[in-house]
Specification:
Layout (H helix, E strand, L loop, with lengths): L3 H9 L4 H7 L6 E5 L5 H14 L7 E4 L3 H15 L12 E3 L1 H12 L10 E3 L1 H15 L8 H13 L4 H8 L3 H19 L2 E3 H14 L1 H10 L2 E4 L7 H11 L5 E5 L14 H4 L1 H4 L4 E5 L7 H11 L20 E6 L2 H17 L8 E5 L5 H10 L4 E3 L9 H14 L4 H9 L9 H14 L3 H8 L22 H21 L4 H11 L2 H4 L5 H17 L7 H14 L13 E5 L8 E6 L16 H15 L2 E10 L1 E4 L2 E4 L14 E2 L31 H9 L11 H10 L5 E4 L3 E11 L2 E8 L4 E5 L6 E2 L1
Parallel strand pairs: 1-7, 1-8, 2-3, 2-6, 4-5, 6-7, 9-14, 9-17, 10-12, 10-13, 11-12, 13-14
Antiparallel strand pairs: 15-16, 18-19, 18-22, 19-20, 20-21
Helix pairs in contact: 1-3, 2-3, 3-4, 5-10, 6-7, 6-9, 7-9, 8-9, 10-11, 10-12, 15-27, 16-17, 17-28, 18-19, 18-22, 18-25, 18-26, 20-21, 22-23, 23-25
The structure holds a DNA duplex (15 and 10 nucleotides).
Keywords: ATP-binding, DNA-binding, Helicase, Hydrolase, Isomerase, Nucleotide-binding
GO molecular function: 3'-5' DNA helicase activity; ATP binding; ATP hydrolysis activity; DNA binding
Organism: Thermobaculum terrenum (strain ATCC BAA-798 / CCMEE 7001 / YNP1)
Length: about 775
DNA sequence: TGACGTCGTGTTTTT
DNA sequence: CACGACGTCA
């Protein structure tokens, strides 16, 4: 290949000695200990490019990242790096993603061996809690006495430690509560199976089980993924460790990157020993330390080093940079959280008006999601656009979950969480009451069948034998004729939609579902709240547009998986000009020119719930360290004298993590003695807009637009456009679709505010497309 | 059976 | 403060 040498040198160009050593390391285990800002993403991407340049097939590479967004970005960077040098589809064929998404794919493919239906659905937090409540009820335990959330936490940590219900009751029980949890766990797991569902932890645990039980299947994956790279290795848990370990034992090409100082997920069962013991697991490992920081000014790094140095359980590391001459880190005391927020808003306004920075250069970071509120309010007043990461996510909104429930049910009718959601919530007035539900659930629970099966049996559509329940003495309950009628309608609807799935594209299927289920008319009261909900539901159609080109059955699987495994940062916008509000946890791996860390107080950072154990305090310290090291140019740390918690005012003192910082590294005194009232650092606590004009009451609207993580329905046609579309496409017209290729229009039909165009494509398939969405071109 | 009101309770971080 | 569970009323 003529341009090969160019490509080769561009892969290695500009790397420092250590990075180069990591990128070009020979086959075998490699551990890269990478301090913040030391270019670890760079090392990972260049390493993969290097492997490709050495003739390794992209099909043989697996890269595990912490977020889907990171995977996406890494793939793009590799594509840019190698271009078409090794064929144009190189980077696309690398397997990249989070542990959860990779495992989901493995289970979809091979889970059958351990009894997992290929149509499984993924249960989120909400679904899990519902299921735990159901399990509690069935066992006859009071859900008030045994908080479902605590039980869920126990189950989750058991699963992360690879303990199934039997293991847990025999090994994991050390208290009365554990014993209860063990019983619930057992029933909960049965319920998951009946619903053909898995939870987040199952995704990991079941793949370990699969690989351990079926060496031949494991061998297939070992042959496939001969090169394995893992990012953020310090945050892997036992299950993830086992996955990687099983996979890499044969070829031993394991390349992990991590930093013990940035381990912040021990509460999610991450085990820092995974990285500490790497050299023991792989004695032949090459270990490379990346200590040069390319991100932050020396002034910021100094503060970071002093903060982390109070941790005892770490090997000392010396971060250095040659970026000096920055501003000192500013520390400010605010009177309360409003004052703190106003100060930040004013500072951002000041810096942007100087023209030095734009809004997207700023991030505000905090320990708990609830701290974002006063900041949001201040930003609204000061008209600062922002996006907020986390909190209530798009996919957690009620109407979105409602629509997803229909989709999940189309995909897998045994998913009782979705079925119940549809029956109980929306649209109301289905005519299926509590009594009926109780009867059906009893039947389901006694016969060990799904709720869906129970309904079909009660309706006489199926027999007990047909669904695999052999209980000749079981009495099939009689239902009221009204309830029966309603159930028939619901079952009919789902069957009908399942048929539509084989005909329509995914966005069109959602559109149809909204209409046929009555959900659309349910939301068409015209009230503002309903309008917004409808819009959210329709945003889902726009998102599904990405899947319009593949077979809908397949599209549904991919779509539901993406939705379920979407992380907070995955929804983040990189383009818009807006300030980012984000938790310290979610900020890991990101960087901003100017960072504000708020709530640097005892009780918040370290958090009150983490103050009992020293190891917890150390984790809080690492959290502070992660935050500080996100800043490239300017860092602001603030804490509030008063803070409203729960409605009551609390008085807080500055965080202990500030205590180790020499005062001359900071701009702003550390008033460990003496407290001052409002106005110490701010001239006033009453906000003024920078322009001095009055601001509108509906402040949220202003920024509300800017942080919606998903497109508004701007690509829906207005009715005036509709005419145009109908005139544009006529039967017999030849059209081109970006993904399906050329085809002939068979039929055009008005569908509500849109038009449906039926096209037969040259490839032989016939699809019904929404005119507003399909991006059809006439030829 | 549904809608509305009161009371009680609980918030760390997330795939 | 805000949300959910529960009870009462129509």
């Amino acid at each position: 290949m003529s341009n090969y040498p160019d490509i080769y040198s561009s892969i290695l160009e500009g790397l420092n000695d250590k990075q180069l050593e990591a990128v070009t390391a020979p086959d075998g285990p490699v551990l890269v200990l990478a301090g913040p800002g030391s270019g670890k993403t760079r090392v990972l991407t260049h390493r993969i490019a290097f492997l490709l340049s050495q003739g390794v097939s992209p099909f043989n590479i697996l890269a595990v990242t912490f977020t889907n967004k990171a995977a996406r970005e890494m793939r793009e960077r590799i594509e840019r790096l190698v271009g078409g040098a090794f064929g144009s589809y190189e980077a696309r064929n690398i397997t990249m993603g989070t542990f959860h998404s990779i495992c989901s794919r493995v289970l979809r493919r091979d889970g059958g061996a351990i009894g997992i239906s290929p149509n499984f659905v993924i249960y989120d937090d909400d679904d899990q809690i519902r299921l735990i409540k159901q399990a509690l009820n069935e066992i006859g335990l009071d859900e008030k006495q045994y908080a479902p959330r605590s039980i869920q936490a126990r189950i989750s940590s058991a699963k992360s430690a690879l303990l199934d219900p039997e293991d847990y009751s025999s090994q994991g029980v050390s208290s009365y509560f554990d014993e209860i949890a063990a019983r619930v766990y057992r029933r909960y797991q049965q319920l998951l199976e009946i619903n053909q569902a898995v939870d987040f932890d199952d995704l990991l645990m079941k793949v370990v089980l699969l690989w351990k039980s079926y060496p031949d299947i494991l061998q297939q994956y070992r042959d496939r993924w001969q090169y394995v790279l893992v990012d953020e290795y310090q945050d892997t848990n036992r299950a993830q460790y086992m996955l990687i370990n099983l996979l890499t034992q044969e070829h031993r090409n394991i390349f992990v990157v991590g930093d013990e100082d940035q381990g912040i997920y021990s509460w999610r069962a991450a085990d820092i020993r995974n990285i500490l013991n790497f050299e023991r697991d792989y004695p032949e490992a090459k270990v490379i330390l990346l200590e040069q920081n390319y991100r932050s000014y020396q002034e910021i790094l100094d503060v970071a080093s002093h903060i982390i140095s109070s941790n005892r359980l770490r090997r000392p590391k010396k971060l250095w940079t040659n970026k000096s001459g920055g501003a000192l880190v500013r520390v400010r005391e605010a009177y309360d959280e409003q004052d703190e927020a106003s100060y930040i808003a004013r500072e951002i306004s000041r810096l942007t008006s100087l023209g030095e920075y734009t809004y997207s250069d700023f991030a505000v970071m905090y320990r708990t999601n609830s701290q974002s509120r006063p900041v949001e309010e201040a930003f609204s007043r000061y008209r600062i656009p922002y996006q907020i990461i986390g909190g209530t996510r798009f996919y957690e909104r009620r109407e979105v979950k409602d629509v997803l429930a229909y989709l999940r049910l189309i995909h897998n009718p045994h998913d009782a969480a979705s079925l119940r959601r549809i029956i109980e919530n929306t649209p109301s007035g289905r005519g299926i009451g509590k009594g009926t539900m109780k009867t059906l659930e009893d039947l389901a629970s006694r016969a060990h069948i799904s709720l869906w099966d129970a309904i079909e049996i009660a309706l006489g559509i199926k027999s007990l034998e047909e669904v695999g329940a052999f209980l000749p003495n079981l009495e099939i309950p009689k239902l009221q004729s009204k309830a029966k009628e309603s159930l028939k309608q619901l079952v009919g609807l789902i069957y009908e939609l399942r048929e539509q799935r084989d005909i329509l594209t995914l966005p069109h299927l959602i559109d149809t579902l909204l209409i046929k289920s009555g959900y659309a008319s349910f939301l068409s009261s015209g009230a503002e709240e309903d309008l917004e909900r409808l819009e959210n539901a329709r945003d889902l159609i726009s998102i599904a547009q990405d899947y319009a080109a593949i077979d809908t059955s397949e599209a549904l699987v991919e779509f539901l998986q993406e939705v379920a495994l979407q992380s907070d940062v995955d929804t983040m916008q990189n383009n818009g000009n807006q300030v980012t509000l984000i938790t310290l946890h979610a900020a890991k791996g990101l960087e901003y020119k100017v960072v504000f860390i708020i709530g640097f107080e005892e009780g918040l950072l370290p958090h009150a719930r983490s103050m009992d154990r020293e190891s917890d305090i150390e984790e809080e310290c690492r959290l502070a360290y992660v935050g500080v090291t996100r800043a490239m140019e300017k860092l602001y740390i603030s804490y509030a004298f008063h803070r409203n918690v729960f409605g009551a005012t609390q008085t807080n003192v500055p965080s202990r993590f500030l205590a180790n910082i020499p005062p001359d590294l900071l701009d702003g005194s550390l008033p460990s003695l003496g407290r001052r009232g409002p106005g110490r650092l701010t001239s006033t606590t009453s906000p003024r807009t920078p322009s001095g004009s009055t601001y509108p009451g509906g402040a949220r609207n202003y920024s509300g637009q800017s942080y919606r993580p998903f497109p508004s329905n701007s690509n829906f046609v207005s009715s005036s456009n509709l005419e145009r579309i109908i005139q544009e496409y006529k039967p017999g017209d030849r059209v081109r679709h970006p993904k399906f290729g050329e085809g002939v229009v068979l039929k055009v039909e008005i569908q509500g505010e849109d038009a449906e165009v039926e096209v037969r494509f040259a490839a032989g398939s016939t699809k019904k497309l929404l005119a507003s969405m399909a991006r059809l071109q006439k030829i």
